[in-house]
Every structure is written in C-alpha cells, then in structure tokens.
Write a structure and sequence with these properties.
single chain; 399 residues; alpha/beta; six-stranded mixed beta sheet; globular
C-alpha cells in the first residue's frame, strides 16, 4: 500500500473583504465565445489519471483536525440525503437541498459547515440527530456497506474495464462514507475513543515537532512554547468540534451565496466578522491573559471537505493569499490550512457561473490568473476524489 503524509498548505488571509467594485462573476463554458473554457486549463486527456488504487494518506498530528472535518463533511451530506428522502412530497425542498459537496472548519469555538446548496439550514439539526442515535448510525452504515457490496458484485460482470473501475470506485466511496460516519459517531459519543484519539494526536504532534526542530538553535523555552501551542490548539479544536456535534451544540451554516463554493462561503463569512471571530477563537483555544504560554502570532483555520478543492477554489485561495500579502491590504492572524492528498491535490475546472468571492481585489487577481494558462494550476482529472486515510488508529470499534 502506497502511503504518504497529508501535504500541508498554509495560506494567509486578508483582514477584511473589499467589496463594491462591480461584478465578481467568472463564466466557465465550452460554448460561450468569450468565456473561459475548462479544456484550456485541464490536463490533456492523454495523461489523465484514472484511479488511485492502493493509495493512502496519513493524517496524523495536527492533520487529524482535517481528518475529523472530513468525517464531518461526509456525515453532513449523509444527513442531508436522509433529509431529502424524507421530503419526497416537497420537490422544491428536495431541489433546494441538493449539493455535491460539504466543507467544514472549526473557528470561534464552534463548527461551521458550508455546502453548495440553495438551502442547507436543516443540516445542523439532522446531523446532530443522526450522531445521537446509535441504531440509526448502525442501519445507515449497513445500508452503505450493502450498496458497496452490490457494486462489487456488479463489477464481476462488467463488460468493460471502464465500467468495472466505475463500479469499484462507487463501492470504495460507499465503504469510505460508512467508515467516516461510524468514526465520527464514536468520536462524538464515546469518551474513551475521544480521549485516546486526542492523546494520540498530541503525541504525534510532539514527534513531528521534534523531527522538524532537530537542528534548531533556539532556546528550550521557545521550543516548549511552540510545542505546547500546537498541542493546545489541536486539543481545543477537537473539543469544540465534539461539543458542536452533540445535541444542543452550535453548528453554523455558511451563508448561501449563489455561484460561491462551500469553502469560499465559509472563509468569507468569517472575514465579514473578522475581529470578533479572532477574539472568539483566541478565547476558545485558551490563549488569554491567563494562558501559561504566549499567544501565537497566527491562528490556524483548518478547512476540509469530502473532496479536494476544485480548480476554481484553488485559484480563489491563491488569489486571496496574494491579496493578503500585498502592501495595500492588512493580513489577518487567521491562516487557512488544508491538509491535502499528495495523490490528488486539486480537482477539475467545471463549467458554470462562479461568484467565488465578493472581494474585488481577489477577483482581479483571479482574472489575471485566468488570462494566462501558464499561471493557472494544472488539474488532474480522476474518477477517484480522494485517497483513503491510512487506518492507524486502533481504538475504533464495530458498531
């Protein structure tokens, strides 16, 4: 099995949004004459990647926050599907709830989820209800595993390699969904699992930190402050996630903005209330006047979802980083962090009308990237949206 550690990408954020500069829409279409075309930027079909069989990603240490956020995003979509199936008499409500993606972060002491749906207001209650009901989790996991077994049976009689690979991938995704839901349920409901998971993450952080600072000439005090701050931040994010997902906890849904993808909804919602979000985050992570260590200069805002960022979101996040680092804008102590699959870091550029940012300067940087295929991040088309997480935590149980 080919295993690589999740790749960390850190991106500074601007301290505010600069709005009011006109339309920030970008049109991607194969048909419209003046639109940007996916084929201009996507990888040539002759070198496209089909599947990543035998690939795993190691989410350890600080990356375990992203791992739990992946479980959360997957489970949010499962809860959404359960809601849609119970709303069959209301076709409009079903349509409004449709979404292919969810992304999550933990900031300001609570969980924020973003989707691409027109209306996702039901997700917090549905997700908490699902996670609180062990029998419902068990039956949902069994249904997902049963569907996956069915795809494997169909693959035995597939008439082509393409059809067989598609069925095997559907099976893998179903098993992954079942695993994510089961693991998140235990993370939330089982005190011993939560304690062991958090403890393992803290030990992994210490191990990674020692490796990274093996040749450091800094003082022992500086070393300990750096290590403690990393462990404290990660542990607090776990606690905040868990309390949000329990019944009665706070889950915020990012504002629904047409044409804006899930993670960009989250980030720009946070930036609209920047100062209060920073203050709440420092307090939630224990960086107060009573803290036993100096507060860090930066506060990590880990974002993770069911899929890697698409090419449009990758361009948006690169452009936002450029704006944050420009001399005309003040940067935030908040730093967006992604822990990416080495095997599949950025998704495809899909046709559509995007309003992925409300910031006119970010939009201007995006347009500059689109104007030259050389500066646009090359994307890799693949039927497989993520490598599986490496199974190196032994405390999970069968439901």
């Amino acid at each position: 099995m080919d295993t690589t550690r999740a790749k960390l990408v850190s991106r500074p954020l601007p301290k505010s949004l600069q709005t009011g500069g006109g339309s920030t829409e970008i049109n991607v279409s194969e048909k419209t004459k003046h639109a940007h075309k996916p084929s201009t930027f996507n990888e040539d079909p002759s070198v496209q990647q089909g599947h990543m069989l035998g690939k795993q990603t190691d989410f350890s240490g600080e990356a375990r926050v992203a791992q739990v956020l992946r479980w959360t995003s997957t489970s949010a979509l499962i809860a959404n599907d359960i809601f849609k199936s119970s709303s069959e008499t209301d076709k409009k409500r079903q349509r409004q709830a449709n979404t292919p993606e969810a992304q999550s972060t933990v900031i300001g002491g609570r969980l924020i989820i973003g989707t691409n749906a027109e209306d996702d207001s039901h997700i917090p209650g549905q997700l908490q209800k699902l996670l609180a009901d062990k029998s419902m989790v068990k039956s949902t996991v069994e249904d997902l595993e049963g569907q996956s077994e069915g795809y494997i049976s169909q693959a035995l009689f597939a008439e082509s390699d393409e059809e067989r690979n598609k069925l095997l991938e559907q099976s893998r995704v179903g098993y992954q969904q079942a695993r994510h839901l089961s693991q998140l349920h235990q993370f939330v409901s089982d005190d011993s699992v939560f304690s062991n998971f958090s403890g393992q993450a803290r030990q992994e952080i210490a191990d990674h930190y020692e490796q990274q600072n093996a040749d450091s000439t800094g003082s022992a005090t500086s070393y300990m402050y750096g290590l403690k701050n990393r462990q404290k931040s990660t542990s607090s994010m776990f606690r905040n996630l868990r309390s949000s997902l329990k019944g009665g906890g706070t889950i915020d849904m990012a504002t629904n903005t047409k044409g804006k993808h899930a993670e960009q909804r989250i980030v720009e919602d946070v930036l609209k209330n920047h100062d209060s979000e920073v203050e709440r985050t420092r307090a939630a992570r224990g960086f107060t006047v009573f803290s036993d260590t100096p507060a860090p200069d930066h506060l990590n805002m880990v974002v993770a979802g069911t899929k890697p960022p698409c090419a449009m979101c990758e361009v948006t996040e690169q452009a936002r980083q450029q704006v944050a680092q420009s001399p005309t804008r003040e940067s935030s102590p908040l730093v967006m962090r992604r822990f990416k699959d080495e095997h599949y870091q950025t998704g495809n550029l899909f046709p559509g009308k995007y309003t992925n940012t409300e910031d006119s300067q970010v939009h201007g940087r995006m347009k500059a990237q689109f104007s030259s295929p050389e500066t646009f991040p090359k994307t890799r088309v693949t039927a497989r949206k993520r490598a599986d997480s490496v199974a190196n935590f032994k405390a999970f149980k069968d439901l």
